[in-house]
Amino acid sequence: MEYTVQKLGRLAGISTRTLRYYDEIGILKPARINSSGYRIYGQEEVDKLQQILFYRELGVSLDSIKRIVTSPSFDGTKALREHREKLLEKREQLELLIANVDKTLAMREGSINMTDKEKFEGFKQKMIDDNEKKYGEEIRKKYGNKTIDQSNAKLMNMTQEQYEEVTKLENEVKETLALAFATGDPASDLAQKAADLHKQWLTFYWSEYNKDAHAGIAQMYVDDERFKAYYDVKQPGLAEFLRDAIHIYTSRKN
């Protein structure tokens, strides 16, 4: 069966503008253009659109989706199996948060007691799951399963006060780093303060602090494009600046 832009848009629940944009960027081209100048989509394009929407639902960027679905080695069946696994993970995360909400409602209605730790379990577990999905393979290979499992356990055992403190500290690292970056000197007092704050932030997750590991993570912020993009999104070069500041910090004797 074939579809015009309007019919395919209605079928998929997306706008015709989105379909035209997908055509413009080369992620989903129509099968042909008819004599009236209308885009016509066939079964192959319908299946590809389904894959694109699966990836979008999972938070994958359009640039990444384009590289995936237009690759000569793209395997649609394998991709569907991967989608299913990731959706199951997402469902598990949502069920955990729903259970957390249900327990909170029950507590407020007076039918159960709920500890402060339990109130944040769903959020902390989601944070762990998201990190595992994005960086798990790399960091486990680099630091070992035992280290990462200990770090995850430490996060899950955080009190409400500790969780709030580490969140506040993370924001302080970002703010101080931005100010230090403006100086252009990774050895400046402000840059070294940012490195020290970063160390303090790490100790909330590590069982013990290690200078070499700290320096290694700083290097990973530059070598891994995902980390680099996270730091450079507002200030290009920030990841390298942080790495340099941390390398100076960890090279000092005290």
Account of the protein in words:
- The protein has 254 residues and is an all-alpha fold.
- It has three domains: 3-69, Multidrug-efflux Transporter Regulator, Chain: A, Domain 2 (Orthogonal Bundle); 76-120, no CATH class; 159-251, Globin-like (Orthogonal Bundle), CATH 1.10.490.
- Helices cover 74% and strands 3% of the residues.
- The protein has 13 helices and three strands.
- It has helices at residues 5-12, 16-25, 43-57, 62-69, 76-108, 116-119, 121-143, 145-156, 160-183, 189-203, 211-223, 225-232, 238-251; strands spanning 3-4, 32-33, 39-41.
- Strands 1-3-2 form a three-stranded antiparallel beta sheet.
- A hairpin with a 5-residue loop joins β2 (32-33) and β3.
- The model has no long low-confidence stretch (mean pLDDT 81).
Would you summarize the structure shown here?
With 254 residues, this protein is mostly helical. Helices cover 74% and strands 3% of the residues. It has helices at residues 5-12, 16-25, 43-57, 62-69, 76-108, 116-119, 121-143, 145-156, 160-183, 189-203, 211-223, 225-232, 238-251; strands at residues 3-4, 32-33, 39-41.
Q: What profile does the largest beta sheet have?
A: 3 strands, antiparallel
Number of helices: 13
* Reported CATH architecture of the largest domain: Orthogonal Bundle
Number of strands: 3
| Proportion of residues in β-strands | under 5%
In terms of per-residue confidence, which ranges show pLDDT below 50 for 5 or more consecutive residues?
Answer: none
Mean pLDDT level? 81
Keywords:
mainly alpha; 3 strands; Multidrug-efflux Transporter Regulator, Chain: A, Domain 2; 254 residues; Globin-like; 3-stranded antiparallel sheet
